[in-house]
Every structure is written in C-alpha cells, then in structure tokens.
Design a protein that fits this description.
Number of strands: 0
Shape: globular
Order of helices and strands: HHHHHHHH
Distance between the termini: 57 Å
Largest sheet: none
Helix content: over 70%
Number of helices: 8
C-alpha cells in the first residue's frame, strides 16, 4: 500500500512540476506533455536500467501514465491556477523528490541490494526525472544547485538501507521528514560547501 501511494503521489507531483516548467520556458502543448511524462517516469527508468531491473516494468504502469496525463492536462486547462503554481512549483518538486526517494529505496531494499545501491536507487529515482527535465528545459539542473536537494534522497536511502524504516507508518514519517527538510533547505537557503576554479 505504501508503495502504491508513494508512486501516485510522486507521479502527480513530478508530472505537475514538469508541465509547469514547460509553461515557464514557453514550450508548446506537446512539449508540456513530454516534459511532464519524462519528469514523472525518467527517474524510475534510470533506476531500473542501472540496478538491473527490467525496463519494461515502466511501461506496465498504465494507471500511472493515465494519472500523469490527467495531471498535465489540468495544468494546461487551468491557466489562472497555473500562474500561482509557477510560483510554487518547487513544492511539487519537493513532494516528488520525497515520494520517489522513499519508493526507490524500498524497491532496492526489497531486492536485497547493498546499502550503497539502496542509496543510489533513492537518489536516482528521486532526482533523475528532474535532472532530465532541467536539461531539456535548458536550465541548470536543480540537483546541482547550492541549496540542498540530492542529499535528502540519500538520507532516505540510508535510513531504509539500515532497516530503520520498514513499517508503513515509519515510511510515511520518513516521507514527511524528507519533504520537510527539502522545503526548509529551499526556503532558508541551506547549502553544501562548493568550490570554483578561477582562470589563471
């Protein structure tokens, strides 16, 4: 049940995020659908490809594709709400990151993969779609900006990999924790140390 709920939540949030970014960069309707679908399913596809799960599983999620298409259509049909959502799109992105990070870690944990693979699965499932979205939208990927993003997905993978969150209520609490940390880090500008190279 947790798996299915997080799948739906993550799909809706990332489909909405992708569609909003498409409108923000003035893509056409087809571009909005493509970017929304890639954001929603790109992370899961990368995860399956890189940890050895058949990629065909992605195409068997018919109900999730329908949910994503409906979500994108709502974004396109409600321009007044879309204007407001453009200001708040990072919240949808945070929801997608949190839901898919936990779901990706659960997937790897259920396949008895080592903790590093579980952390990687959480990170790539939570952030992979967003990376592809930003590249296609010709924006600097959100994952690599200074405010903390990918670290929270790795934290989710670490906690699940150690077996600290196995019960449904624990997984929902972990989802809430990762979501809160991502929103707080964005709101207050928490960031990791960075280095730059100056031209000689």
């Amino acid at each position: 049940m947790v798996w299915e709920v997080l799948n739906v939540v993550g799909t809706i949030a990332f489909a909405m995020s992708g569609a909003i970014i498409a409108l923000k960069v003035k893509y056409d309707i087809v571009g909005a659908y493509v970017l929304g679908l890639i954001t929603a399913f790109g992370g899961g596809a990368l995860r399956n490809l890189l940890i050895g799960i058949p990629i065909v599983e992605i195409w068997q999620q018919t109900s999730l594709f329908v949910i994503a298409l409906i979500t994108i259509t709502i974004v396109l049909l409600l321009p007044n709400l879309t204007v407001r959502w453009l200001r708040e799109w990072s919240i949808f992105d945070a929801i997608g990151l949190s839901a898919f990070a936990v779901q990706g870690a659960m997937h790897a944990y259920a396949n008895n993969l080592p903790i590093l693979a579980i952390m990687f699965s959480a990170a790539i499932t939570g952030a992979g779609g967003g990376i592809i979205r930003d590249v296609l939208a010709q924006q600097k990927p959100l994952v690599f900006r200074q405010d903390i993003y990918l670290l929270w997905a790795l934290v989710a993978g670490f906690i699940i990999g150690l077996g600290w969150a196995t019960q449904p209520y624990q997984l929902y609490l972990l989802f809430g924790l990762i979501l809160a940390l991502r929103i707080l880090s964005h709101r207050f500008g928490w960031n990791l140390p960075s280095r730059s190279v100056h031209r000689i």
